[in-house]
Each structure stands twice: as structure tokens, then as C-alpha cells.
């Protein structure tokens, strides 16, 4: 009985000790100047000889720290780390008689030579504050083996991620995510956060975006965007991620595709390819934009149809085309690198192909006053489209305050569409009243060339800046439409109509656009802004219609009333002078004056000319 009672008392004592919690506190001071407190130092807590972090705290602005919820009777190891100071280690064990342990003043000595510094990996602090940089030790924040960077960031104090992948650090937006100090796949944040494994990250560093402060000297500290730099482990300097898929089904249905990205040091390459006849896109828009690299190269046009198919910059990535059966395929590659001189280079090429076939039968029962008609229609339509897209981007920092970008792009689209339509109309006695056949063919070729350059110059004087942009565009749309139509009317008279026609539509577009913007600060609340835009255009829209010549079977008989050509050329300018007055952080007043000019010439094929010449000056 005594043994049972003793065992009960022992277990009860252990339970009480386990349930009881205590605290450890102290104040961190400079060992030389004993009045200088050390704020934002990291106090890491480990259990005994365990290398797994138990908890941690940061000292406040007075150098004081307090660690709660420590178990009584457990030996803890405290590792104190402050920037530019030597590490201090202490072992503590809380007793039931003293649950709140105050270590008093703890003095840290400054580092005098860190060339031969020994880093104990098991005692790395979870957070280190270095001037304007907060550094998180990734190994201190445990994640699942399958976790990606986004999962790691969610565990960092002060970091939040919304449903769209946007990142906030202590309420501030994140403007860029770097990998080893360099842009990763063109700077797309979610490429890194959603694809890089968390277990290859050594450190996560947070800093203010220096360019944001230079762009807007009046920006308040709470609104400065953040930059996240992911430091990879030393053994990890290359890798790959992506996905592959394949499938098949009845009626010879198939789909297959893959999208992969590879990185090594400062070079990244993305490749993709797909093919299917299942009326579905090869990838999602998000995959093509991010892993495939379209977002890095720039997207000027997007088209999404009702059946889920989509195209970017005129390149079809598969999917239904408003009915029928579509077989589609495509391939592409995106290259991104950073040279030793700091020049960012991006190049891309994409090819898209689609072949859509529609076969339809339609029966219509139609009542017209006292008459009733039965109309039968059968049609077949084949649409084949090819598209090529080339692009590049070069970004160079000419000096610490000047950045130059050059972006050439070229796209080519080729289409070949054929259609056959037969219509038969019967009356209530099922007598054939009329029938007709229409055969059409449309061949098209679209070419789009563009060169965009931008020069951004900041000056040593805060708020003074100059931005120049030049865009040169040349587009050509060539369309040939062949239309053969034959109609026969049997009731009430026997007559027929026949048309064999060719329409040639050529659209040409040439545009040069130059923009200049200069900002000069006059005082802390007042600045002068000068902006000018000049635009030169040279456009042509020519529509020519011909019918077939029975004698030589050539389309050489012109139809003047179905032909027209319009040429437009000239200049347009927009010039603005304004003063920007910053009343407070929420209110800006920017009065100014605008001087615009329009000098265009419009020529028509019938020798008509329209020449607007307009100049106006107005306050704004």
C-alpha cells in the first residue's frame, strides 16, 4: 500500500512539474559601453543537446527579452546573436522554487575579426537583423518534405500570402523576389514561390526596395515595398521543375504535353510542347504565362473562346473553336540569363497549330404568311491556323542611375479556311423550290513587327528624373477570299444565279511613337513636370474585288463599286506642362497646360482628299 501511495505521489509531482511553466528574461548590453542596449537581437532556445529549435524571441528597443512557456526542470540552451557582436551561449534550468528567472544584464562584445569565424550550424539563430536586412534561417521553420517556397514563407513571422499569391511583409507589398540576389525567370514572383522546393532554401532575406525610394522621395516608410531574396544552399545551384502528362481514349482521342523549366546559376530555360484532338487547351493560361515564359516576354493580346480555348499574341494553345473537332499542337522555348556585366537577356519562340473541322446538318420548318417551307442545310468547314512568335528583351544598367531596355518582337500568323454549304428548300407538297451551293476559301497572312526601347535616367538630386520611350510598329494583314456561289430557282420560275468572286484585302500599318517625360523638384512639396508625345502614322487599307474571266479563267475583271483604297499619313503631338503640388500624403494638385497638334492626310481611291490640320492650347 505504501509503494502504491509513493508511486501515486511521484506521478502527481511529475505532472504538476510538467504542467507548470516559467519564464527567462534579461537585458542585452554592449560590453564596452555598458549603457548601450542591443535591440533586435535574436535569442534562440534549444532543449538540452537537441539541435531542433524550440522557440525564439527578439529583444525590444531597450534590449530586453522575455521567453515564456518554458518547462520546469528541463535544461535549455540559449544562443544570443546580435549583428556585429560575438555569440553568447547560456544554459538554464528552471526550478519549481524559481519559475521566473531573470538573467540580469548580459554583455556582448563586438566582433573584431570575423575572417576565421566558426559557425555552429545547429545553433544558427532563426532571425538575424543586419542594418536594413532581416534574415530568416530556413531550417528553423519546419515544413513538409513536399513543401514549396510559398509554404515556407507562410511560416515566417509577419509574412502573409493572399489567395492570388500576393505577398505582404508586415503589411508592405513585395515588389520582387530574387534568388541568390538575381531575378529568377524574369522576376515572376510565383515562379519561385510555387515551384522551388522549400528544402533547397538556406536563408530568406527581407529588405526595402531601394528603387521605390528613388522613384518617389516622398514615400513614407510604411509604404516602401519589400524585396525577398532566397539564398540557396551551397550545394544547390541548378535544378528543374515542371509537369508531363499523356492520355488516350476511344475514337482515337489523345492528349500529351509537357512543360519544364531548368535553371543553373543565372541562366533559366523553359520549354513546352503539347498536342491533342480532344478539344482542350494543352495547358492552363497560368502555366503558359509563368512556367512557359509568355509573361516574361510580354503579352499584347489575349483571346478566350466559349469552349475554353485560348490564344496569346495570336498563338493558339488549343481548345475548342466554337464547335466541331479541333486538333491542336504547339511548342516553344524561353531563355533568360544575366551576363557578367549585369545585362539581362530574354529570348523566346513559340509555334501554335490548330485544325478545326465542323460538319453540320440543319432542318428548318418555316411558316411565311400562308406558305410553309422546309429548308435543309448541310455544311462543312475546315479552319487551319499556324502562328509563330519571336521575341527578345535586353535590359542594361548603364550606370547606377540609368537603365536601358530594348524589346524587339515579331509574330506571323497563317490561316487557310475552306467551307462548303448546300441549301435546299421544299414546299408543302415536298416539291423542290430552290437549291444552292456556296464554296468559299479564305487565305490570310498577318505579320506584326515591333521595336520598343526605353531609357530611364535618375539624377543625384532626389526627385529629378528623365524617361524616354520609342516604339516602332509595322503590321501587315493580307487576306484573299474566294467565293463561288450558284443558286437555282424552280418555282415559280426556272432561273439561276452564278457568282465566282475574289476579294483581296490588304491592310498596312506603320507607327512611330516617341515619349519624353522630365520631372524637376522645386521644393519638398512642389515639382515641375514636362511631358511630350509625338506620333507618326502611315496606314493603308485596300479592298479590291474581281470576278473570274470566262475566257482565261483568271480573276482579272475588276468590280469598281466593291473596291476602295484609303491611305492615311501624318503626325500627332501631345505636349503638357504642369506643376505638381503635394498638399499632404493623400492629396496632390497638378494644374497645367496642354498644347496638341494634328496634321493628317487621308487619300481615297476616287481622288478625294481630307486633310485635318488642328492646333489647340488649353489649361488642364
Please summarize what this structure is.
This protein has 620 residues and is mainly beta.
Note poorly predicted spans.
Answer: 115-121
Mean pLDDT: 85
Please summarize the sheet with the most strands. 17 strands, antiparallel
Task: Note the gap between the termini.
Answer: 99 Å
What is the number of helical segments per DSSP (H or I, 4+ residues)?
6
Structural class: mainly beta
Helix content: under 10%
Q: How large is the share of residues in beta strands?
A: over 45%
Overall geometric form: elongated
Give me the count of strands.
Answer: 35
Radius of gyration, in angstroms, nearest whole number: 36 Å
Name the descriptors.
about 625 residues, mainly beta, Immunoglobulin-like, 17-stranded antiparallel beta sheet, 8-stranded mixed beta sheet, 35 strands, about 60% strand, elongated
Report on this model:
There is one protein chain. Helix content is 8%, strand content 61%. Among the domains are: 96 residues, Immunoglobulin-like; 277 residues, no CATH class. With 620 residues, it is mainly beta. It has a 17-stranded antiparallel β-sheet that branches. About 1% of the residues have low confidence.
Strands, helices and their partners?
Elements: H1 2-19, E1 21-30, E2 42-47, E3 53-58, E4 64-71, E5 75-81, E6 88-93, E7 100-108, E8 127-130, E9 133-137, H2 149-155, E10 159-161, E11 167-169, E12 172-179, E13 182-183, H3 189-195, E14 201-208, H4 210-215, E15 226-232, E16 238-248, E17 254-264, E18 267-276, H5 285-290, H6 294-297, E19 302-304, E20 310-312, E21 315-316, E22 325-338, E23 344-368, E24 371-399, E25 402-426, E26 432-458, E27 465-489, E28 495-521, E29 526-548, E30 555-558, E31 564-584, E32 587-589, E33 592-604, E34 609-610, E35 613-619
Parallel strand pairs: 1-7, 12-15
Antiparallel strand pairs: 1-4, 2-3, 2-5, 5-6, 8-9, 9-14, 10-11, 11-12, 12-13, 14-15, 16-17, 17-18, 18-22, 19-20, 20-21, 22-23, 23-24, 24-25, 25-26, 26-27, 27-28, 28-29, 29-30, 29-31, 31-32, 31-33, 33-34, 33-35
Amino acid at each position: 500500500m505504501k509503494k502504491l501511495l509513493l508511486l501515486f505521489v511521484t506521478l502527481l509531482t511529475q505532472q504538476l512539474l510538467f504542467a507548470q511553466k516559467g519564464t527567462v528574461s534579461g537585458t542585452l548590453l554592449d560590453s564596452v559601453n555598458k549603457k548601450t542596449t542591443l535591440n533586435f537581437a535574436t535569442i534562440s532556445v534549444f532543449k538540452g543537446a537537441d539541435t531542433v529549435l524550440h522557440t525564439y524571441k527578439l529583444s525590444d528597443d531597450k534590449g530586453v527579452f522575455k521567453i515564456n512557456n518554458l518547462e520546469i526542470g528541463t535544461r535549455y540552451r540559449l544562443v544570443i546573436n546580435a549583428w556585429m557582436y560575438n555569440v553568447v551561449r547560456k544554459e538554464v534550468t528552471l526550478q519549481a522554487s524559481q519559475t521566473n528567472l531573470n538573467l540580469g544584464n548580459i554583455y556582448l562584445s563586438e566582433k573584431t575579426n570575423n575572417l576565421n569565424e566558426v559557425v555552429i550550424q545547429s545553433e544558427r539563430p532563426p532571425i538575424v537583423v543586419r542594418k536594413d536586412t532581416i534574415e530568416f534561417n530556413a531550417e528553423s521553420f519546419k515544413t513538409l518534405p513536399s513543401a514549396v517556397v510559398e509554404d515556407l514563407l507562410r511560416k515566417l513571422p509577419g509574412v502573409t500570402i493572399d489567395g492570388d499569391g500576393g505577398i505582404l511583409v508586415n503589411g508592405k507589398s513585395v515588389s520582387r523576389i530574387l534568388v541568390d540576389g538575381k531575378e529568377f525567370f524574369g522576376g515572376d514572383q510565383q515562379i519561385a514561390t510555387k515551384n522551388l522546393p522549400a528544402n533547397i532554401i538556406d536563408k530568406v532575406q527581407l529588405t526595402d526596395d531601394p528603387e521605390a525610394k528613388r522613384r518617389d522621395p516622398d514615400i513614407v516608410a510604411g509604404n516602401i515595398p519589400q524585396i525577398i531574396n532566397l539564398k540557396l544552399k551551397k550545394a544547390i545551384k541548378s535544378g528543374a521543375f515542371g509537369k508531363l502528362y499523356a492520355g488516350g481514349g476511344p475514337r482515337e482521342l489523345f492528349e500529351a504535353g509537357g512543360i519544364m523549366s531548368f535553371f543553373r546559376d543565372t541562366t533559366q530555360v523553359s520549354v513546352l510542347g503539347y498536342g491533342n484532338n480532344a478539344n482542350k487547351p494543352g495547358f492552363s493560361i497560368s502555366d503558359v504565362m509563368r512556367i512557359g515564359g509568355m509573361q516574361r516576354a510580354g503579352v499584347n493580346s489575349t483571346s478566350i473562346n466559349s469552349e475554353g480555348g485560348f490564344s496569346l499574341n495570336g498563338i493558339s494553345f488549343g481548345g475548342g473553336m466554337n464547335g466541331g473537332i479541333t486538333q491542336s499542337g504547339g511548342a516553344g522555348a524561353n531563355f533568360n540569363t544575366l551576363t557578367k556585366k549585369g545585362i539581362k537577356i530574354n529570348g523566346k519562340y513559340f509555334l501554335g497549330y490548330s485544325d478545326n473541322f465542323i460538319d453540320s446538318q440543319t432542318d428548318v420548318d418555316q411558316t411565311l404568311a400562308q406558305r410553309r417551307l422546309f429548308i435543309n442545310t448541310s455544311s462543312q468547314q475546315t479552319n487551319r491556323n499556324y502562328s509563330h512568335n519571336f521575341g527578345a528583351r535586353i535590359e542594361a544598367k548603364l550606370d547606377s542611375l540609368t537603365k536601358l531596355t530594348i524589346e524587339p518582337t515579331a509574330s506571323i500568323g497563317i490561316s487557310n479556311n475552306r467551307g462548303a454549304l448546300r441549301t435546299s428548300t421544299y414546299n408543302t407538297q415536298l416539291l423542290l423550290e430552290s437549291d444552292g451551293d456556296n464554296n468559299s476559301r479564305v487565305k490570310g497572312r498577318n505579320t506584326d513587327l515591333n521595336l520598343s526601347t526605353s531609357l530611364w535616367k535618375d539624377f543625384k538630386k532626389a526627385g529629378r528624373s528623365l524617361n524616354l520611350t520609342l516604339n516602332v510598329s509595322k503590321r501587315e494583314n493580307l487576306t484573299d477570299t474566294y467565293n463561288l456561289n450558284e443558286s437555282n430557282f424552280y418555282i415559280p420560275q426556272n432561273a439561276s444565279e452564278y457568282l465566282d468572286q475574289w476579294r483581296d484585302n490588304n491592310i498596312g500599318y506603320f507607327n512611330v511613337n516617341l515619349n519624353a517625360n522630365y520631372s524637376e523638384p522645386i521644393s519638398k512639396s512642389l515639382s515641375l513636370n514636362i511631358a511630350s508625345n509625338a506620333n507618326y502614322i502611315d496606314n493603308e487599307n485596300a479592298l479590291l474585288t474581281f470576278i473570274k474571266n470566262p475566257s482565261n479563267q483568271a480573276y482579272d475583271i475588276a468590280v469598281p463599286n466593291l473596291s476602295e483604297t484609303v491611305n492615311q499619313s501624318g503626325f500627332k503631338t501631345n505636349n503638357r506642362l504642369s506643376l505638381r503640388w503635394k498638399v499632404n500624403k493623400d492629396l496632390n494638385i497638378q494644374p497645367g497646360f496642354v498644347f496638341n497638334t494634328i496634321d493628317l492626310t487621308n487619300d481615297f481611291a476616287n481622288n478625294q482628299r481630307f486633310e485635318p490640320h488642328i492646333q489647340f492650347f488649353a489649361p488642364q
